[in-house]
Design goal:
Elements: H1 16-27, H2 36-61, H3 71-100, H4 112-123, H5 132-163
Length: 164
C-alpha cells in the first residue's frame, strides 16, 4: 500500500522493499509488526469458524448414504463458510488496518484495545464493519473455488493413494 502525504501528492514509498526499509528506519524492527495482535485475533477466530462452518454445512447438506459431498454442496458450503468467516473477521481487520497505518510520528493508538475504543468512540460501532459488504460479496465466490479445489485435491490424493 502507499501512504500519500497531504502536503504533496508524491507517494511515501517507491515499492515494497523501500517501504520495508523506511518503516524499519523510522520505527525500528517492531514497526514491521504493527497490527500483529489484531491479525492474530482476526485469523485465529475466523479460521476456526471458516472450517467448522464448511464441515458442518457439508455434513448437513450431504444426503444420507453418501460419504462425500457433491459439487453443489461444496460450492454452497464453501461460499457460506467464507462469508461467515469474514463477518467475524471484519472488525479485527478494520482495527489491524488502522494500527498498521498509524504513522510513527503520530502514535494515535497504544495497542489493539486502545485502537478499538478510540475508533468506536469517534465513529460509533459501525466503524468496525467498514468493508463488510464488499468482503462478503468477494468471499462467497472465492471460497466456493477454494473448497472445490480442496475437495478435488483430496479426491485426487485418495485416488492415487488407494491405487498403490
Amino acid at each position: 500500500f502507499c501512504r500519500i502525504s497531504p502536503a504533496c501528492s508524491k507517494p511515501k514509498y517507491r515499492g515494497s522493499l523501500h517501504c520495508l526499509k523506511v518503516i524499519a528506519k523510522e520505527e525500528g524492527f517492531g514497526g514491521l509488526y504493527k497490527g500483529c495482535s489484531a491479525l492474530l485475533c482476526r485469523d485465529c477466530s475466523s479460521s476456526a469458524i471458516y472450517f467448522l462452518t464448511y464441515s458442518a454445512l457439508c455434513e448437513w447438506l450431504t444426503p444420507a448414504g453418501r460419504n462425500k459431498p457433491g459439487f453443489l454442496v461444496v460450492l454452497l458450503s464453501g461460499g457460506f463458510a467464507g462469508v461467515l468467516a469474514w463477518g467475524l473477521a471484519t472488525p479485527m481487520d478494520v482495527i489491524k488496518s488502522r494500527m498498521q497505518t498509524d504513522e510513527s510520528d503520530q502514535h494515535k493508538y497504544k495497542g489493539l484495545v486502545h485502537c478499538a475504543r478510540e475508533s468506536v468512540r469517534k465513529e460509533g460501532a459501525k466503524v468496525l464493519f467498514k468493508g463488510l459488504g464488499l468482503n462478503c460479496i468477494r468471499a462467497f465466490p472465492v471460497n466456493m473455488v477454494v473448497f472445490v479445489t480442496y475437495e478435488a485435491v483430496l479426491r485426487l490424493t485418495d485416488h492415487y493413494t488407494n491405487k498403490k
